[in-house]
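Subject: Sanity check before I submit

Could someone independently write out the structure tokens for this chain? I want to compare against mine line by line before I put it in a report. The sequence has 212 residues.
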Amino acid sequence: MVDTTSEKSRRGSYAKSKNTRASILDAALAVFAEAGYHKGSIREVAKRVGMSEPGLLHHFPSKSGLLEAVLTLRDDKSYALVPLDGDDGAASINGLIDLAAHNASIPGVVELFCILSAEATSTEHPAHEYFANRYRWTRENLRRTFELLESSGDLRPGVRPDRAALSTIAVMDGLQVQWLLDRSSLDMAAELRAFLSTLTTLPLGTGRPETR
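---
Independent answer below. Compare away.
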């Protein structure tokens, strides 16, 4: 006979643990966004979740492991909007505009990314390898996306896929910094759309699902 009471207990414990981890990641994101990785403390994260440091470390054994989990969570959400590793170049390009619009609704996450990517230029930073690999992956997949558009005749004459990939990343990062400094100064999705229209002849969306 199956012990249904034990099974329900295990499921309940798993769900509780999953919810606790999600709360920790949300708090860690906020703390790291406000103070950066080095100044943001495990103690402060635990305080915001309402638990002890040992309790938090039961879920994430190290500060660097917690940071990695926060960054992975952000990337998972971003990749859901931008299918860069797919075979639909148009979907990938329009996904970038959707991502820019989405980022405008989560300034804390954008700030975290900007702070950590700057800090991580130091080879001693725990996120250095993560960001180096992330930029490498993004460059390669964006280049591939522009190559797909070149093959389909949707890339403007004279545009090189490798340079288009580099400049697109630079524009997106630069727009984020300017927007963080003065959110009334620009519309990230609109400016990115205008830039991408100089690279491709695709019909581009606005980054606002209700108008797509």
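---
OP: Matches mine. For the report I'm noting this point. Residues 67-211 form a domain with the Tetracycline Repressor; domain 2 fold (CATH 1.10.357.10).
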